[in-house]
Amino acid sequence: MAKQLVKVIKVQVVGGQATPAPPVGTALGPHGVNIGQFVQQFNEKTKEFAGVTIPVVISVYNDRSFEFVTKSPPAAVLLKQAAQIAKGSGSPLSNKVGRVTQAQLEDIAKTKLDDLNVKDVQQASRMIAGTARSMGLEIVD
Question: Could you give the CA distance from residue 79 to residue 105 in angstroms, rounded to a whole number?
Answer without folding.
Answer: 8
